Amino acid sequence: MKQVIILLIGFYGFFGYVNGQNSDNPPVQAKNIILLIGDGMGVSQIYAAMIANHGHLSLEGFTHVGFSKTYSANDFITDSGAGGTAIATGYKTYDHAIGVDADTIPRASILEIAESNGKATGLVATSEITHATPASFIAHVPNRNDYEEIAKSFLETDIDVFIGGGYKYFADREDNRNLIDELQKKNYTVCTSTDQLKDVKTGKLAGLIYDDKPPRKRKGRDDMLMIATQKAIEILNQSESGFFLMIEGSQIDWGAHKNNTDYIIEEMLDFDAVVGAVLDFARHDGNTLVIVTADHETGGMSIMNGDFSTGEVSAKYSSFGHTGVMVPVFADGPGDDLFGGIYENTAIFEKMKLLFGFQ
Ligand code: MG
Ligand code: ZN
């Protein structure tokens, strides 16, 4: 009898092994996830920057690429509120919604789920930190334009690091609350310049670097996105249970709304340099999944001509608004093979949740 049982265990062990179901191989999990969103970043915006950079981008370091369908619950062409909310919460919603579903019911974001599971969390953007994309990960409001309401959400979570513009929505408010004081009482170090950011080594960090919108890179923002990203990773990586960080290249969209090819390329190259730095960190770390995607395409940009040696790009546009085309999703790190194929934008949330090992 004993020999039969041992034989059966051996038999199932062998078939479990060949089926990849062996209990020695638990499902892949990522300790850390860094999600980079290029707002308005379609394939043409990426290729324009690649040509301008003489044929290469850090994005080429990714070997797993898919496409996401970006339409919202009420609109074939999404806005950044519904697009951000789909990626952040896994719910398609109406345009201008932030962290609520199509029935205005608040839905937990991947950042909030990570937070409640003991991970450190962060948001970095080159827009106001209250702008639609970062707001989708932390706030639950029916309308994206309610910046003062969105700012309050940062006090209602335990987010560890957030860096962007929009100081005035915390400091100069209609309800006369001073959220800067309230952040400091919650032990946040509040920074209003990139130099101040560099001095912070640990603890909670609120970087409100610009009073309102950050300027475009060559009009004074300089290396803010790189400095903010590296500081966020330095602080969040002190968490033994891992972290979630969303980084947004917000102004690719703003350049595209203006059909301004130079502005798009400048913001794309700024974003791509940060993608490269994040990939370097992740590959050295070994437990970090990096995802790069967009909420939608902006401008209906087409590349009509280019020269890799001079970096010249000739583009045409079909819109001053967003378009409905699929956008790329790049992934590298634990679970990256789940990101090939074509899927809904909401699937990005599901994949992140699965790879974090959350129920
Ligand atoms: Mg945005
Ligand atoms: Zn836009």
CATH level-four homologous superfamily name of the largest domain: Alkaline Phosphatase, subunit A
Give the second-level CATH assignment, the architecture of the largest domain.
3-Layer(aba) Sandwich
Task: Tell me the series of helices and strands, N- to C-terminal.
Answer: HEHEHHEHHEHHEHEHEHHEEEEEEEH
Tally of separate helices: 13
How far apart lie the N and C ends?
A: 40 Å
- State the major sheet: 10 strands, mixed
Strand order of the largest sheet: 5-6-4-3-7-1-8-13-2-14
The rounded Rg comes to 21 Å
CATH fold-level name of the largest domain: Alkaline Phosphatase, subunit A
Q: In one word, what is the shape?
A: globular
Ligand set: magnesium ion, zinc ion
Strand percentage: 15-25%
How many domains make up the coordinates?
A: 2
Structure class: alpha/beta
Q: What is the CATH C level class of the largest domain, in words?
A: Alpha Beta
Portion of residues in helices?
25-40%
Question: What structural keywords apply?
Answer:
single chain; ten-stranded mixed beta sheet; 14 strands; 2 domains; 13 helices; 36% helix; Alkaline Phosphatase, subunit A; 21% strand; alpha/beta; binds zinc ion; binds magnesium ion; 359 residues
